[in-house]
Amino acid sequence: MRVESVFDRLEPLLTRVSKPVQYVGGELNATAKAWEDTAVRWCLMYPDAYEVGLPNQGVQILYEILNEQPDVLAERTYSVWPDLEELMREHGIPQFTVDGHRPVGAFDVLGVSFATELGYTNLLTALDLAGVPLHAVDRGDEHPVVLAGGHAAFNPEPIADFVDAAVLGDGEEAVLEITEQIRRWKGEGRPGGREELLLRLAESGGVYVPKFYDVSYRSDGAIAEVLPNRERVPHRVFKRTTMELDDWPYPKKPLVPLAESVHERMSVEIFRGCTRGCRFCQAGMITRPVRERSIEGIGEMVQRGLEATGFEEVGLLSLSSADHSEIQEVTKGLADRYEGSGTSLSLPSTRVDAFNVDLANELSRNGRRSGLTFAPEGGSERIRRVINKMVSEEDLIRTVCTAFANGWRQVKLYFMCGLPTETDEDVLQIAEMAKEVIRAGREAAGRKDIRCTISIGGFVPKPHTPFQWAGQTDPDTIDERLRKLREAVNSDRRLGRNIGMRYHDGKPSLIEGLLSRGDRRIGRVVERVWREGGRFDGWNEHFSFDRWVAAADAELTPLGVDLAWFTTRERAEDEVLPWDHLDSGLTKEWLWADWQDALDAREQDDCRWTPCFDCGVCPTMGTDIEIGPSGRTLLPISPVSQGSPVRNPAFEAR
C-alpha cells in the first residue's frame, strides 16, 4: 500500500502561518525511505514546536537507530502552532511528518517522547488532527499504536486513556524489540488484531499497557490497588537500561535544523545516570546507574558529528557533565584536537564542586568566554541539606572568585522556591548569596563590572524521588516569597544593580505537579482543558491557569477529590501511589527512608565513591555503575575530507 504525501495541499497554506520553514523538512542528515519498501513504520513525535523538538537527543537517537534497519521507516512530527492547526482543520489536512509529509495516522506506531507533562494537550491535538481516536479503547487495527516514552512516562497514568502503551527508561534496545514484535505479528497476518499485539508487547515486562491494569479506589479517594486483568500480563513493569553506551554511538549524523532552534550545537552524551542523590531530581533518580562513555567513544562521536553537520559548538551532555571521571582528559583532548578550527566546547550542566578553572579554560580555549552557570538550588545551608545538594556557600564563593580572577565577568545561579520544609528565611538567603558573589567577585577581579543573575523556578515534586510524598507549596506562598526576595535584592542598590533576577510564578508549577503525580482520573481534566482550547501549556503566552483550575473543579469534584488533593497534600507512607506498579529500580522503602532523612536535613553520599547504600537499582536491574578512569587518552584526529567543517591544516602538517 502506498501512502501519499500531503505536501501539495499543505504548501499553499504555509504563506499564511508564522515560521513556515519548520514544516517543510529536508534537513541535513534527514532520512527518506520508500513506504512500500518497509515492513514496520514509526512516526516519532516530540509534542512541542519544531524549534524545541528537533534538537531533542532522544528522538534523534531513535530516529537513526530505526532507520538503520533496512525494512523499517521512521519519520518525525512536531506540534503545529495554532495558526496552522486552524488552517489544517479548515482544509482537511491531517497531522503530517516533516520527512515525507505522510499522514501520521497511517503509521504502525506513533512514539511520543515526553520530557515534560505540560505537553499532554499537544498530544491530543496531534491525535485529533491525525484522525486517531483520542481514547485508546476506541482504536482499531487500522490505527497506530500510541506509545509514550521519556521521563514523564514513568507515571503515564494521567494519559492512560490516550496512550496504548508506555516504555520506561532507555529506548535504544526497546524500540528494536518492539519493532520485531510488530514485524512478526504483521508477518503472521495480524492474528488476534490490536489486542493480541498489545498483549505480546505487555507480556515481555518491558512495555506498560494501561488497559491491561484495573485501578480501584478507596472511599477517601486514594488508590486501593492496581491489578492486571489478563493472565499474560505481569504485575510490575520494569524500566529499560542501556548499559554499554559505546555500543550505541548515536546520533552518528545529527539533524541540522532549517529553522532557528533552542540549541544550535552538536551534542554528545558523555555519560548517563547520576548518583549524586539530589532528592528533587527525578532525572537523576530514574536514570541510575551511572554509565560513562569512553574517551575514545566520545572522540569518535564528536569527530563524526562535526563532519556530518558543520556545527561550530559541541555540547558535552549529561546530568552533571563535569562529573565524568575523565572530564579533564576529555576536554583537553578535544580542545587540542580542534584548536584553530573555530570549534568550541560547552558543558551545559556543571556542579560548583566539580568545577575548576583549568576545565573552564579548556572549554573556552577555542570559543568565546561566556558566563558561567551553577545551580545551588537552595539559598541556605539547611535547605541544601534537605534536598541533598551538597555544596556550601564557601565552595560557591571560592569557585566564582577563581573564575572572576581569571577573566570571567558574569555568573548565573539557579534556585528553586517551594522546596519541602522551606521557610521565608531560606529563600531570602538567596539574596545574601548573590550579594556576596558580587562583593567577592569585585575584589577578585579588581573591577566593578561583575554581574550575577539569579534564576528561580517553582519546585514540583516528582514520582520515583524521595519527595514523591511531599506536599507542593501553593502558588500564593511562592509568589509572596519571591516578592520578598526581590525586595531583599534591591535593598542595597550598590550591589543590587549588578544582580539580575528571573523567575516564574508558581501557577504553571502547580499544574505540572497535578500532571506529574496524578492518576487516571486526571485524564478527564487534560481532555477538558484541551477541548476548551488548551495548547502549548509549556509556553507562558499560551498557558491558562484559570482554564486548568476550572477544568479540575468541574471534573474532580464529582469524584470526591480536587486540585489540592493531588498537589499540596502530603502523602502517607502506606498510600498506594499511582506509579507503584511501574518499577524504576529504586525501592519504595529506600525512597521513604531518604524522605525521612530529608525532613531531618541529613545528607546522603554519592555511591560512586562510597559503599552501596542500597537504593535497589543495581541488583533489581541486574546492572552496575560503570565509570573510569580508564587511563586511556583521546585518539589522534583522523584525516577528514576536503572541505570538512573541522578540517584543520595544523594537523595535516604533522
- The number of distinct helices, counting runs of at least 4 residues, comes to 23
Identify the overall geometry: globular
Category from helices, strands and their pairing: alpha/beta
What is the mean predicted local confidence, pLDDT? 92
Radius of gyration: 25 Å
Report how far the terminal alpha carbons are from each other: 56 Å
Largest sheet, in brief, is: 5 strands, parallel
Query: How is the largest sheet built, in terms of strand order?
Result: 2-1-3-4-5
Low-confidence stretches: 639-645, 647-654
Into which percentage range does the β-strand content fall?
Answer: 5-15%
The counted number of beta strands is: 18
Percent of residues in helices: 25-40%
Describe this structure in words.
The chain is an alpha/beta fold and 654 residues long. It is globular and about 75 Å long. It is built from 23 helices and 18 strands. Helix 5 crosses helix 18 (523-531). The protein has a five-stranded parallel β-sheet with strand order 2-1-3-4-5. A four-stranded parallel β-sheet has the order 14-15-16-17. The protein has a three-stranded parallel β-sheet with strand order 9-12-13. It comes from Saccharopolyspora rosea. InterPro entries: CHP03960_rSAM, Elp3/MiaA/NifB-like_rSAM, Radical_SAM_N2, rSAM, rSAM_horseshoe, rSAM_sf. Pfam families: Radical_SAM, Radical_SAM_N2.
